[in-house]
Fold each of these.
Amino acid sequence: MLERILPGGVASAELLAYPEELTAHPAEEHLIAKSVEKRRRDFIGARHCARLALEQLGEPPVAIGKGERGMPLFPRGVVGSLTHCDGYRAAAMAHSLRFRSVGIDAEPHGPLPDGVLDSVSLPAERAWLAGTPADGLHLDRLLFCAKEATYKAWFPLTLRWLGFEDAHITFRTDSRTADSGSGTFHTKLLVPGTTKDGGAPLMEFDGRWLIADGLILTAIAHG
């Protein structure tokens, strides 16, 4: 599913079922040695997907460490993102010569828990939710999912926190598809986007979203 919302040049892999024989890379085991089983499976599954995506890019399937705020440490010259939720693990990877960053997120297609929306959204976003026919889609969870993908695209370039209130997201629905469960989104960053490498400051991101098979997927590939 993920490849449906990623542009050419971004490799991806996903697991819908967890292979019982799957084990941690020996060089990553220490990172999850004390983790509960669910955390281990999410960690191992997502990194397994990352190595599959790396191979698609012609890169060796190396260990993937963990950096500041849990950021995955990908090989030099590669950018990427990992995600997981119940029943799903995935990775998207690209060469940094083509894309500056990649951010993906997966969420179950269900409503946000009571009380969460106000803490993860702006007034303008809540107004959009209130005035948009849902047509069976949980748009509040879609908004949260897009905010998560935005953060994952932002943090590796800036090494700075980005709060939910620091990004305003708007959505469009694909009109050419048979259903209304896909489209694009635009993130306007509301804080200075100075990057750690001195490159062009970040002002916005554009991404795609998909709702299918009980999942919400969002993806940003920032060139």
Note: Strands lie at 10-15, 65-66, 72-73, 78-85, 88-95, 101-108, 167-173, 182-189, 204-212, 215-222.
Amino acid sequence: MGRERPSQGAPKWPRVSPKAGLRAESLLKDDFMIQIPGVLTRQEAEKFVAAAEAVGFQHSTSRGAAYGEAFRDNDRIQFQDPALADHLWQATGLAQVVGDLQDEEGVAVGLNPNIRIYRYRPGQRFGRHVDDSNELGGGRFTQYTLLIYLSSCGGGETVFYGSRNRRLLSVAPAPGLALLHKHGDCCLEHEAAAVTAGCKYVLRSDVVFQPH
């Protein structure tokens, strides 16, 4: 996978109104993958898109399969923002809805301050790949990928595959929808299908765990 280059400086991102009453919908057993509609309103999602466009995106690609890297063609912004990560964890309702996620390794405590915003224009896609878990220090580590879709579009589904190349499920982008899937050693191979119409915008972070 291609190396992610941090953008220069972090913008002032929109504030999110507190959410309550959200419900996680399990897409695979044992909370391996869940989706949560409504973590952002449509207006909040549009404000993030506008702020990202004001900052400007960098085109991202990869060296391809010959180098063991997934095909990648999208645009991105990347920055470190612990305050935004904490704000999103609390205000979106994620702390209440998924804050009790736990396994034998630890329990969910927040979001990775390494924030990425992706833009996919027509024809752009991200080929099959897996997401790594990252150590953040102090015993903390990432355990779930978090995608918050900021727009709808034609195509652009997040598609997951099981054994024998079997297509398990796909999730269509919708403004304010959060998708969480377990990553690291047990991450399912997945891809961002090509956008066929409009633009797909996604805010990406990770759910951080700490040991029990």
Note: Confidence is low (pLDDT under 50) at residues 1-8.
Amino acid sequence: MSPITIYTKGWCPYCAAAKDLLRQKGADFEEIDIGRESARRGEMIQRAGGRSTVPQIFIGERHVGGCDDLYALDRRGELDRLLAA
């Protein structure tokens, strides 16, 4: 399984929803809370091509996007394939 990184903030309902979906899929992920680790916010923005909202989700080196993007991948049946790679 490719490593998964999700940049979050503690109060974000979209972050919670994205993490819930990943847990339902049995996927382990590294969570980086940019509310607590503010120095990592710049890293997230750079990796996400300028996007500054949370969550920002990466599977391997692929930038998936945010929560809506993650759920859209799942609806299309592509998330399981990405997680299995």
Note: Residues 15 and 55 are 5 Å apart (CA to CA).
